[in-house]
Amino acid sequence: MITADAVIHGKRDKLLGFDRAEHPVALQLGGSDPEKLAMAAKIGADFGYDEINLNVGCPSGRVQSGAFGACLMKTPELVRDCVAGMRAAVRIPVTVKCRIGVDDQIPEESLFTLVDLVAGAGCETFIVHARKALLDGLSPKENRSVPPLEYDLVRRLKRERPDLTIVLNGGIETINQAQILSQDCDGVMLGRAAYGEPYILATVDEEFFGNAGAAPSREEVALQMSEYLKQQFELGVRAHSVTRHMLGLYHGAPGARVWRRYISEHAPLARGDILDGAVDAVRAVRVDA
After folding, report:
1. CB 109: neighbour CB atoms within 10 A?
2. How far is CA 33 from the centre of its chain?
3. This prediction's pTM
4. Which of 58, 82, 98, 123 is catalytic?
5. pLDDT digits (tens, 9 = 90+) for 13-24
6. Concatenated DSSP letters for 141-188?
7. pLDDT tens across 24-47, in order?
8. Cα 127 vs. chain centroid, distance in angstroms?
9. Class of the domain covering 218-288
10. Is 71 noted as a catalytic residue in this protein?
11. CATH: 3.30.1330.30, 3.40.190.10, 3.40.109.10, 3.20.20.70. Which one for 2-170?
């Protein structure tokens, strides 16, 4: 998530730049001013993003102080106006990621009210984290796991609003679980599970979409990322900015500990070829085994 103000006033190449290999890629905006969000959405579209998403789900205190994120669940009319402004500024899809409610709201009312108002402004896709957010009583980390999941409510939303695209989010940890839950919605979104264990996505193309063909191995992924990192390093990007997001690549596989240790130990002075060294370290362990 990037705030609308940061997009408008910040270093856009650094904040918004991405590699062509990342398509399709969405830009998630945080904000509550329809005019600023429209400006930021237009900037994102001009950068080549495929989708603009409005964050109506983040519960952090910093976000609340800026009057956006999950606290916008309390002002669905404002969300509608924000989406209307963004849609008027761009031709690419504008979507919303939200919670089912916040604090003492009744989810059956808050979720449907928000969706109906925002859909009236032309939004067709909603990614719903199937938990309330307790803005005053829980930390952001606790808000990702403590409030109970209410998958049935999101399923009901899809049944009663069949013309909308409803994507289920929250607490999905395995591909099998994703397959089951996606039967009653248009899709599912994995967050922490995919971040902590990215190779969990290796079989998605085949299992969900029927695209035959072997997925690349972990080593092949690492070597492709190594070429990307070398390019970014030459542009002034710190290696750690890339490698810190790859610590879980070998999760559950032989060499996982060696992979994590090599990257962590070499991070302070890492150059663009650090992933090549990490791959060699894993290979050595496997040969010894």
Report:
1. 10
2. 22
3. 0.93
4. 58
5. 999 999 999 999
6. HHHTTSSPP-HHHHHHHHHH-TTSEEEEESS--SHHHHHHHHTTSSEE
7. 999 999 999 999 999 999 999 999
8. 10
9. mainly alpha
10. no
11. 3.20.20.70
